[in-house]
Amino acid sequence: MASTTAKLPVWADVVLLPLINVALAFLVSGLLIAALGQDPFEATWILVRGAFGYEESLGYTFYYTTNFIFTGLAVAVAFHAMLFNIGGEGQAYIGGLGVGLACLALDQSLPFILLLPICIVGAALFGAAWAFIPAYLQAKRGSHIVITTIMFNFIAASVMVYLLANVLIKPGQMSPESREFASNAWLPFMHEALAWFGIEVARSPLNLSLVWALICCVGVWALIWHTRWGYEIRSVGSNVDAAVYAGIAPARIIIIAMCLSGGLAGFVGINEIIGVQHRLLLDFSAGYGFTGIAVSLMGRNHPVGIVLASLLFGALYQGGAELSFENPAFTPDLVVVIQGLVVLFSGALSYMLRPTLERLFQRFAAPALVEA
Amino acid sequence: MAEYYLLAVLTLDATIRVSTPLILAALAGLVVERSGVIDIGLEGKMLAAAFAAAAAASLTGSVWLGLLAGVVVSVLLALLHGFACITHRGNQIVSGVAINIVVAGLTVLLGISWFERGGQTPPLPNSARFNAITFPGAEAVAEVPILGALYAELVSGHNILVYLAFLAVPAVWWLVYRTRFGLRLRATGENPAAVDTAGISVVRMRYLALVLCGILCGIAGSYLSTGHGAGFLRDMTAGKGFIALAAMIFGKWRPVPVLFACLLFGFLDAVAIRLQGVEVPLLGEVPVQFVQALPYILTVVVLAGFIGQAIAPRASGLPYVKEH
Fold first, then answer.
1. Angle, nearest 10°, between helix axes B180-190 and B160-178?
2. Structural domain contains residue A68
3. Which residue in A16, A276, A277, B282 could disulfide with A12, CB within 3.0 to 4.6 Å?
4. Are B195 and B205 in contact (CB under 8 A)?
5. Which residue in the set B88, B292, B299 is minimally distant from A158, CB to CB?
6. Looking at the domain assignment, is residue A29 inside a domain?
C-alpha cells in the first residue's frame, strides 16, 4: 500500500480520488435517469431544491443526516480495526429497543433530565450487546464477522416482531406498537429548542439528537486518533502481526471495536424512538444501517468525511422523497440505486482509477517537480 | 392417521418447493467460495434474475426466453462482482453489498417505468411459466395408500427447475470433486499461489467460478418469478439469498450437506406458518418468529464451532496479487 500511495500526493488520494468516484456514481445515476426517459438535470434540480430549498425540507434533510452519522460512525469504528460490521441495521434496531424499554419502565417516575442519560446508555448498551456476540465469536472462535452480523440482523428483526406483537404491544390495539411514552421522555424537537431562544423555524422531525450525533463525531475522532484504544484499534486494523508484537491482544480489541460500533449504531434509536416516534414500533431502523456502509466508505472512515457524506445522503433521502412527489416515475427506489452505486464506485471499485490517476500525475506533475 | 400422513406429505412437498431456490443459490455460493471469492450478492443476483425472467417472459410469452434473460442478467452481475474484486482487487464484501442495494432499487425502478404496476410485472399466464410436470401414472396411483400419495405429491407434480435443482447437487459434487476443473477450483480457494505456480491462471479460475455462480443464481431467481410464483413482486427474494449463504456454511461448503441444510431451512420455512398458534407437545406454543429465525441462529451456532468446525476455504475473501 505504501509504495502505491507514494506516487500520489496526499490531497489527490484523500480528496480528489474519492470525489471522482462519487462523481462517477452520480454520472451513472444520471445516465440511468436519462435511460428512463427523464431529464437528469431537472431531476437534480428538484432534488436539490427539495433537500435544501426551504426550512422544513432542511429540517428533514438534517433529521436523516443524524441517523446516517450514527450508522456511518459505527461502520467506520469497526473498519479501523479492519472489521466489516454489516450488522448496523440490527444493532440500531436493538438499540432502539433499549431506549424503548427504558422509557416504558421509567417514564412515569423520572424527569426528562434523568431519563435522557438512561436512554442514551440503554441505546448504547443494547446496540453494543447485539454486536458483542458476533465480536466474541470472531475474536475467540474465528467465526466470520460479516456472516454472523448478517445473521444477527435477521435475528433482530424476528426478536422485534415477536416482542412488539406479543409482549410490548399496547393492549386492545391491532398494530404492533407499544403505548406512547409520557411526554417527559420526549427529546425536544429542534423547532421547540430554537423557540426557547426566540428563533422561529418550521416544524420538522429534526430533534436534539443531531447535537448528540455531532458530539459523537468529536468523540470518535478523539477516540480513534488520540487515545490508547484508538491506537490499538488502528494497529490491529493495519497489521495484526505487528500489533501482537507490540503487545496488543487482537481478540480484546476486536470486541472493544465492535461494541463501540454497535453502541454508535444503537443511537439511531435515540433519534427515532424518543426523538420522533415517541413509541416503540417496527422497522424504524429501515435501511439506515446499510446506508451507514455507503456513508463510511464515502467519508473515508473519518468523522469529517462522515458528516459530509451523511449530509449528502440526508439530502438524497429528503430530495428523493420530494422528487417522487413531483414526478411519479422517480420512486424513492431511485435513491436506493444511487446509494448502491456510491457503494460500488466509492467502495468496491475505489482502486479502479488509481493507476490512471497515478500515470496522469507522473506525466504532468513529476516533470514540474524536476524543473522546480 | 391418514389425515396426518397427508399433512406430512404436503408439508414435505412445500419444503421441496421452498428449498429449490435455496439449493441452487447455495450451490452457486459454494462454487465461488471454493474459488476464494466471497459472494454476499447471491440475494441481489437472484432478485435481478427474478425480475429479468418475469419481464422477458411477460414480454415474449416464452418462459425459456425468460429463463435465459434471468441467467444472462445474473451472470453479468457476477462478472461485475469479478471486475470489482478480482480485476481491481476491491473488497468482496463491499462489492456484494453494492450489488444487493443497486438491484433492490433498480428492479422496482425499472418495473415501475416499464410496466406501471407499482414495481410488479404483469401476472404471467400459465403458458409463460414453468408448470408442474405430472409423472406417468401419478394420478392412477394417487389413491394407493401411503406410497401413492408419496409418489403423486412428493415425487411428481413439480416444475422442471425443481428437478434441475436436485440434479444440480450431484452435478456440482462431481464437478468439484471428480474433475480437473474442480481440483483447480478447490486449489484456487485454498492456495492460489500454488495454482499460479502450476501455470494456471487464478484470475481465470475465479471468473469461471463466478460465471457458474451467476448461472445457478439466475436459475434460482427465475424459478421464483416464473415457476414458484407467476410474476415479479418487489423484494421477492426476501432474504433467501442470505438463507442460502447460511445453508452453504451450515453444509460446510460441501454439496450434499448443503442440500440437507437447504431442505432443513426450507422445512422450517414450510412449518413456520403451520405452527402458528399450535401447541407443540413438551414445548408448548412455539413463536413463529423463533422458527423463522432458527436458520440464522443455527448458522451462528455452526459458525461458532459448536456443531463441528465450519472452516471456509483458506484464501476466501483475499484478492490474489501475482508476484513478479
1. 70
2. yes
3. A16
4. yes
5. B292
6. no
Could you tell me if A24 and A348 are in contact, meaning their C-beta atoms sit under 8 angstroms apart? no
Of the candidates B60, B53, B61, the one whose C-alpha atom is nearest the C-alpha of residue B224 is B53
Give residue limits of the domains in chain B: 2-238
Counting Cβ atoms within 10 Å, is residue B145 exposed (0-12), middle (13-18) or buried (19+)?
exposed
| Nearest CA-CA distance, residue A354 and chain B, Å | 10
User: Which grid cell is B27?
Assistant: 450451490
Name B280's bridge partners: B284
DSSP B238: T
Residue A84 counted as domain residue: yes
Q: Which of B82, B92, B100, B84 is nearest to B46 (CA)?
A: B100
- Residue B131's pLDDT band, with cuts at 50, 70 and 90, is confident
Please answer whether residues A100 and A168 qualify as being in contact, where contact means their C-beta atoms are separated by less than 8 angstroms.
Answer: yes
Q: Which of A223, A294, A214 is nearest to A253 (CA)?
A: A223
* Cβ–Cβ gap A155/B297 under 8 Å: yes
Phi, psi of B279 (to 5 degrees): -80, 115
Q: At A369, is the pLDDT very low, low, confident or very high (cuts 50, 70, 90)?
A: low
- Closest among A259, A27, A253 to A123, alpha carbons compared: A259
- Per the structure, the count of domains in chain A is 1
Give the pLDDT confidence of A71-127 residue by residue, as tens digits.
Answer: 999 999 999 998 989 999 999 999 999 999 999 999 888 898 899 999 999 999 999
3-state class (DSSP) for residue B231: coil
Query: Cα–Cα distance between B138 and A153 in angstroms, integer?
Result: 43
Judge whether A127 lies within some domain.
Answer: yes
d(CA B269, CA A310): 37
Residue position matching grid coordinates 451467476: B214
Q: In sequence order, what are the residues at sequence separation of 6 or more whose Cβ sits closer than 8 angstroms to the Cβ of residue A349? A: A21, B83, B84, B88, B90
Closest A-chain CA to B316 = A144
Give B312's contacts in chain A (Cβ within 8 Å). 144
Which domain covers residue A122, as residue numbers?
Answer: 59-312
Q: What is the DSSP string of A163-217?
A: IIIIISSPTT-SSS--PPPPGGGPPPBHHHHHHHTT------S-BTHHHHHHHHH
Partner-chain contact B105 A152, CB within 8 Å: no
Q: What residues of chain A lie within 8 A of the CB of B103, using their CB?
A: 340
pLDDT at B223 over 60: yes
The span from the CA of B182 to the CA of A9, in Å, is 45
Task: Give me the phi and psi of B306, to 5 degrees please.
Answer: -85, -20
Tell whether A129 lies on the interface with B, counting CB pairs under 8 A. Answer: no
How many Cα atoms within 13 Å fall on the side-chain side of residue B83?
A: 12
Residue B323 burial class via C-beta count within 10 angstroms: exposed 0-12, middle 13-18, buried 19 and up: exposed
Q: Which residues have C-beta within 8 Å of that of residue A293, sequence separation ≥ 6?
A: A75, A86, A88, A343, A347, B94, B97
Residue A348, pLDDT above cutoff 70 = yes
